[in-house]
């Protein structure tokens, strides 16, 4: 089998590419060939060359956009410059050329909506990752995003230009038209994707070489480790460092801050002051081994790693919608406490104390047990093998799903992959 992987071309963080790499690694281990679609110099692909990379255009962020914050899927595409007609045409041209050259049996993407057009034009099955905030309009009764109607119109025009029926929204283009939607979570955390046809709950898609990279050794017994990972967001490490040092003082605490940059606050990394160590891209899973608390923006991968490790979370999402949703779900389960803006040391200390007093670590461990009972990247590859061999049928590409209330889907079924009553796809794997 040949699989073409396409992380979001305009991604600000590394979550999209790491999920692609996690599945690609398993595909290679099962004897398959993989390749990637990405702009030149895309993060991490050069460090982990699992297959060839075919170049696609790099979208240009509109000059009026100050940061990558968004409230809807359409806005997310706009702030990344992925709704400009010139970009859309160039992207489809490059994608079709790569498909012709590599001849994949399956295409796997995170958020690259133009591939829904390219895949249909070339007849290649499409697999797309799915997250609740991106599909609420389809299955949760969300209202039309009128402020970004021009984004919907641009993708509709792209479809018509290539002789395809234009769906009513870009969400349906990607997730209603995809043969298989992969939810990197569990129904207990995100029940809504199950109401779309062809959803597989895969659980965490974590890339081992990144997750297990070197990290400072755990502190001595009796010292509480606090791991901090903010990634790209409106709350920065520089904002938080003084508050962290005050909230978690020595000798009772050891604070490990994971940064993506080479310098923080003018200091070359790694840099230590007092009991706070700032280091570049340690393995988060490795760092969480023996940790007592994670302070994070709320990206999905870091939260999944925390639950697997049984580590409760203090969330500092800033203004970003998806991290706020991710953290709110964990807070509802009693495994997280969410703080607004740039939290003060007093707020951090109070949140950590609340989590310790309410058995949040035990709640995190229980969620981790649910996450472990999923097929993971291996299961996604098995599903793609079924897809490539024709054992898995494709739903009608543009048919809207039946309306369903928010939270529909009910309790998890015995196999842990689908809510009870939803179509079971356990046979794929």
TrEMBL record:
It comes from the Bacteria. The lineage of its organism: Bacteria, Bacillati, Actinomycetota, Actinomycetes, Streptosporangiales. GO terms for molecular function: glycosyltransferase activity. Residues 392-429 are annotated as: Disordered. Keywords: Transferase. This is UDP:flavonoid glycosyltransferase YjiC (YdhE family). SUPFAM superfamilies: UDP-Glycosyltransferase/glycogen phosphorylase.
């Amino acid at each position: 089998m040949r699989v073409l992987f396409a992380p979001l071309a305009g991604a600000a963080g590394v979550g999209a590419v790491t999920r692609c790499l996690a599945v690609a690694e398993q595909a290679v281990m099962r004897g398959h060939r993989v390749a990637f679609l990405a702009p030149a110099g895309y993060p991490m692909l050069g460090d982990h060359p699992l297959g060839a990379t075919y170049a696609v255009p790099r979208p240009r962020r509109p000059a009026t956009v100050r940061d990558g914050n968004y409230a809807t899927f359409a806005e997310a595409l706009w702030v990344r410059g992925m709704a400009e007609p010139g970009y859309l045409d160039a992207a489809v041209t490059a994608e079709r050329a790569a498909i012709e050259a590599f001849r994949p049996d399956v295409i796997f993407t995170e958020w690259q909506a133009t591939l829904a057009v390219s895949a249909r034009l070339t007849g290649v099955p499409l697999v797309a990752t799915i997250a609740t905030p991106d599909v609420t309009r389809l299955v949760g009764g969300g209202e039309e995003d009128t402020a970004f109607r021009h984004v919907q119109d641009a993708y509709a025009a792209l479809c018509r230009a290539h002789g395809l029926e234009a769906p009513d929204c870009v969400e349906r283009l990607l997730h209603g038209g995809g043969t298989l939607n992969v939810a990197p979570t569990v129904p207990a955390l995100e029940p809504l994707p199950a109401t779309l046809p062809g959803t597989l709950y895969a659980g965490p898609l974590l890339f081992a070489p990144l997750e297990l990279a070197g990290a400072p050794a755990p502190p001595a017994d009796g010292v509480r480790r606090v791991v901090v990972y903010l990634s790209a967001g409106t709350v920065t490490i520089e904002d938080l460092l003084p508050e962290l040092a005050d909230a978690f003082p020595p000798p009772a605490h050891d604070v490990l801050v994971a940064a993506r940059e080479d310098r923080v606050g003018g200091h070359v990394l790694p840099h230590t002051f007092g009991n706070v160590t700032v280091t570049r891209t340690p393995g988060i899973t490795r760092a969480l081994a023996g940790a007592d608390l994670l302070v994070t923006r709320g990206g999905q991968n870091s939260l999944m790693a925390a639950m697997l490790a049984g580590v409760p979370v203090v969330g500092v999402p800033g203004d970003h919608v998806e991290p706020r949703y991710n953290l709110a779900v964990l807070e509802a389960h009693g495994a997280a406490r969410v703080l607004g803006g740039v939290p003060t040391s007093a707020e951090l200390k109070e949140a950590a104390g609340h989590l310790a007093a309410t058995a949040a670590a035990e709640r995190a461990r229980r969620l981790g047990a649910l996450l472990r009972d999923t097929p993971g990247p291996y299961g996604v590859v098995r599903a793609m093998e079924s897809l490539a061999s024709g054992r898995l049928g494709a739903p009608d590409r543009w048919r809207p799903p039946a309306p369903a209330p928010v939270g529909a889907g009910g309790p998890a079924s015995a196999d842990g992959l689908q809510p009870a009553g939803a179509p079971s796809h356990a046979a794929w794997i």
